[in-house]
Amino acid sequence: MITATPVRTWELDRNPDLIDLVSAARDHGHEVLLIERPMPDAVSVAALGKAFDLVAAKGGVMLENADGKTVDFEAGENRLAAASRLWRRVCASLGGPIAAGGFAYRPDRDPGGPWSGFPSLLFRVPELAVSRVRGRTYATAMTADADRLLELNATGVRAPAARKLEVTPVRNPLAWTAAVESAAARLRGGAAAKVVLAREVLARGDGVVSAAMVARSLRAAYPSCFTYLITGADGTAFAGASPELLIRRSGDRAFAQPMAGSVARGATDAEDERLARQLEDSAKDAIEHRVVSEFVVEALRPFARSVSARPAEVVRFTNIQHLATSVNAELAHPPASALELAAALHPTPAVGGWPRDAADALIDELEGMERGWYAGAVGWIDGRGDGEFAVALRCGLLWEDGARLYAGVGVMPDSDPARELEETELKFKALLTALV
């Protein structure tokens, strides 16, 4: 049975820094999640403490209370769909809760190895959610004394911070480029249209790598990206700065912005323009992007009265440029929730490939690593069905003095393995510069 203190929501008369809030709560032993996008029309959420968790379980998704007791369960092989059904029941019982969290690239598999602290799906209804909406800040409490979490002070790092990193590829780069060449050859033979292959590197510091400082550095360096920080049950933390929106749902409208095809930024405006034109003129990148954008449009059609997509354009971030397509959908009534839409879209060909089953088979055979939450999704959902999910990219799994960093590329039949390796190195820089 789901029981809780009635939900309370009020507007704060100050705008606290959300990273400071989660840092202080984590220092005091509370579980925390942060999803932040500092843009005028975006919603950012800091989740402090635990009231309930929707978490992957054998055969479906269970609802745990703060004591870890299972109070509800929804069966289903598709854990995202099961979580959506269970969330509707939670909202009917609790009123207007907010949950933050996400899921692994493969929600149907329980991550292992370094990802043992993360289930394949987790959405947390926190004791206290602090939300920033168009510059105004609101608190939503699930317990009678949840507002105490607003008054916590960070204890600070007790050991010296890392000043330099030792970076080591987990897999020999020559072996990885051989896997890319093998994948391209398989694609030329008709095994699939596209597959995404990723790499991981280990970065070990000579001191403490603070998750809060990493999140703060990412926010400053990549202000137009989604900044996220999610703590694992084993003391690790998953952090990143994603450029890619999977889905945003607001009432009867949904918006997605799939990205595929990349090039570096230039040192000057003129070089920026030259590289952008090079990206737009690339046949390989155009085909790769079209596979992704057409998939997103078709995946949204069953839920919508109308779907429209703008022509692909080049969008620029701090150190990289991408081809992106803006997709708008007017949802049919009753509108599907953000989580239902995410279930229909994930994984897009931008992070997996196409067709899905064929691409996943190639990933299992050739990639040689545990993706965990890399290329999954992170975001928030509320009691109205609204929510927003970013694709979990430009990310790392952090521990006290180091991190595992992840980056992937879209492999096409004519891919150049050396160029694909260079693209992963460019993407790794997003995290490496934030670790020290």
Topology summary:
Blueprint lengths: L7 E4 L6 H10 L4 E5 L6 E6 L3 E6 L2 E6 L4 E6 L3 H16 L3 E6 L17 E5 L2 E6 L2 E6 L23 E5 L3 H16 L5 E12 L5 H11 L4 E6 L5 E6 L2 E6 L2 E5 L1 E6 L4 H13 L1 H18 L3 E6 L3 E4 L3 E5 L2 E5 L6 H8 L7 E2 L1 H11 L10 E6 L4 E5 L3 E5 L2 E10 L5 H19 L1
Antiparallel strand pairs: 1-10, 2-3, 2-13, 3-9, 4-5, 4-8, 5-6, 7-8, 7-23, 9-10, 11-12, 12-22, 12-26, 13-14, 14-25, 15-16, 15-24, 16-21, 17-20, 18-21, 19-20, 23-24, 25-26
Helix pairs in contact: 1-4, 2-7, 3-9, 4-9
Keywords:
12-stranded antiparallel beta sheet; Anthranilate synthase; 11-stranded antiparallel beta sheet; single chain; 26 strands; 436 residues; 28% helix; alpha+beta
Short description:
The chain has 436 residues and is α+β, with helices and mostly antiparallel strands. The protein is built from nine helices and 26 strands. 51% of the residues are buried.
Overall description:
The chain has 436 residues and is α+β, with helices and mostly antiparallel strands. The chain folds into two domains: 8-142, no CATH class; 165-226 and 244-435, Anthranilate synthase (4-Layer Sandwich). Helix content is 28%, strand content 34%. It has nine helices and 26 strands. The strands form three sheets. Strands 1, 2, 3, 9, 10, 11, 12, 13, 14, 22, 25 and 26 form a twelve-stranded antiparallel β-sheet that branches. A hairpin with a 2-residue loop joins strand 9 (128-133) and strand 10. Helix 4 crosses helix 9. The radius of gyration is 21 Å and the shape is globular. The mean pLDDT is 91.
